[in-house]
Design goal:
Blueprint (H helix, E strand, L loop, with lengths): L17 H6 L22 H15 L27 E6 L5 H11 L7 E5 H11 L1 H8 L4 E8 L3 H16 L3 E7 L2 H4 L5 H8 L7 E6 L18 H10 L3 E5 H8 L7 H4 L5 E7 L5 H16 L4 E5 L8 H4 L4 H18 L6
Parallel strand pairs: 1-4, 1-5, 2-3, 3-4, 6-7, 7-8
Helix pairs in contact: 2-3, 4-5, 12-14
Length: 351
């Protein structure tokens, strides 16, 4: 048995200082060791192999001095010269085709010190601006060689305009950009026009991006057995008490707690947790709650934290209306990731 009983996520109310937000702008633990040569392209989808080739070349092109000429005096110009040609790539594709793997591989392959590269989700970037202020964020990231933005959001016009302005300033300072899509497929036709929509939203940056479409099916379930069925409440509780560092919460209570914790703190909410155990999992009652659960699922997946659950299977979390609506791409990604984490949690239950 574990030395102490399981913790409860519902009992945690983390506070995240601004300096931690900056320090954590690196690929998450799941993607610490990924590289282009560890990406497993689907042989039936040539766009996946093409993406590796394009991104490898893009990374190699970011070597040398900072594009803005940082560290050199510029006697005849008030601001750095913007490099000619595309200074960014935009990865457009469905969930589970390995976009985050490729984005993290680009970060690792870029020949610059980690302090000169930043990696974060769109939400994490907006949180950084909120914590530091716009001008300080520009100063903090302006000397970077590369900024990678995962899961670029297009569902909040205010945040989109904010980040568009930020990226415009960073491009002016010579920062190279890379982004993956997280669009509203109900409006964009399964993401096929995500690149065009992204470039339209950031009109001033369109010339700096090369859209790169990545086709394919969800790799997380390619050739793998079906995810395990939910366990009983007793099995979940017993596993939680027997696993050092596990948490144990009832699902309805956790959903209520997430409403009281800002999504920027969901990563910190799981600090030190080795497994998340949930009882009484059921359909999510409304869209606001569902979107918060999506963020938590992303943070759990990034940190490779297994999820053991009782109740309904994860593919029944979201209603048909949700799965057919504008945020369905997010919900399918959450189902995919939670299913993978449920598979990882199966060994926690004693046979």
């Amino acid at each position: 048995m574990a030395d102490a009983g399981p913790q409860a996520l519902c009992a945690r109310e983390p506070r995240v200082p601004a300096e931690r937000l900056v320090a954590e702008m690196v690929p998450p633990p799941r993607f610490d060791s990924v590289r282009f040569d560890t990406y497993d392209p689907d042989p039936t989808q040539p766009s996946q192999s093409e993406a590796v080739t394009v991104l490898s070349g893009f990374a190699a092109g970011l070597g040398g001095a900072h594009a803005s000429g940082a560290g050199k005096k510029r006697w005849f110009s008030k601001k750095p010269a913007v490099p000619a040609g595309p200074r960014g790539v935009y990865l457009d594709g469905g969930y589970g085709v390995g976009k985050t793997h490729l984005l993290a591989s680009l970060w690792h392959a870029t020949p610059a010190e980690p302090a000169l590269k930043a990696f974060g989700t769109f939400v994490e970037l907006t949180n950084l601006v909120g914590a530091l202020g716009f001008q300080q964020t520009v100063q903090t990231l302006g000397g970077h060689r590369l900024l990678c933005i995962d899961e670029f959001e297009l569902d909040d016009p205010g945040d989109t305009v904010l980040v568009s302005s930020l990226l415009s300033r960073l491009v002016e300072q010579g920062v190279a950009l890379a982004a993956t899509s997280n669009t509203l497929p109900g409006k964009l036709g399964e993401g096929r026009f995500a690149a065009a929509d992204f470039l339209r939203e950031i009109q001033g940056l369109s010339a700096h991006f090369r859209p790169l479409r990545i086709d394919g099916q969800d790799y997380r379930h390619r050739g793998l057995p079906e995810a395990p069925a939910p366990f009983s409440d007793e099995q979940v509780a017993k596993a939680a008490y027997a696993t050092d560092g596990a948490s144990l919460d009832d699902f309805p209570g956790l959903l209520e707690h997430l409403a009281r914790v800002h999504p920027s703190r969901y990563g910190a909410l799981t600090d030190g947790i080795t497994a998340v155990c949930l009882t009484d999992v059921g359909p999510v009652p409304d869209q606001s709650t569902a979107l918060r659960l999506v963020v938590l699922a992303d943070r759990l997946y990034d940190r490779e934290i297994p999820v053991l659950a009782s109740g309904v299977p994860f593919d029944r979390l979201f209603s048909d209306d949700m799965l057919n609506g504008g945020y369905r791409k997010k919900y399918f990604r959450a189902i995919s990731r939670l299913t993978a984490l449920a598979r990882d949690a199966k060994p926690l239950v004693s046979q």
